[in-house]
Design goal:
alpha/beta; Rossmann fold; seven-stranded mixed beta sheet; 5 helices; globular
Length: about 150
């Protein structure tokens, strides 16, 4: 488990970029954090780490945004309105899980019981105007990168 504090959106993006460099096809990232915690900002950094542009936008109204790269595609979901297995199924969520993609889910708390057993949980706590406490859990490759 990694636990760090960032003091600006830029620091959050920088940390997320390091995490993104360790991601590989097939990874599922489950975000936990309230409204305005910085989940989309973190995803901008993940995209950079994966080798994608940082032109990442909240998927609130689209439900899922797709960012295609040369090697890996990032699918960025918003699960805020998803409350059960049936509504999750209608999103096509399971069709996006593949060895050629990384799936990042905002509001993963709503689908926690349907996530793959092996997933990465990123919890972002809003600690002040620009301060965030970020915890990364679920895969030892991240622990090794910061030890």
């Amino acid at each position: 488990m990694i636990n760090i504090k960032t003091k600006s959106p830029e620091e959050t993006i920088e940390f997320a970029e390091k995490v993104g460099k360790l991601l590989q096809g097939g990874d599922v990232v489950a975000y936990k954090g309230g409204l305005g915690a910085g989940k989309t900002t973190f995803t901008r950094g993940l995209a950079l780490g994966i080798g994608l542009p940082d032109e990442v936008f909240s998927p609130t109204f689209a439900l899922v945004n797709e960012y295609r790269g040369k090697g890996v595609t990032l699918y960025h979901f918003d699960m805020y309105r998803i409350m059960n297995a049936e509504s999750l199924e209608t999103t096509g969520f399971y069709d996006y899980l593949s060895d050629e993609s990384v799936v990042a889910c905002e509001w993963s708390e709503n689908i926690e019981e349907y996530l793959p057993v092996k997933h990465i949980t990123i919890t972002i706590k809003h600690c002040g105007e620009n301060e965030r406490e970020i915890t990364v859990e679920g895969d030892e490759r991240f622990d090794a990168a910061w030890n």
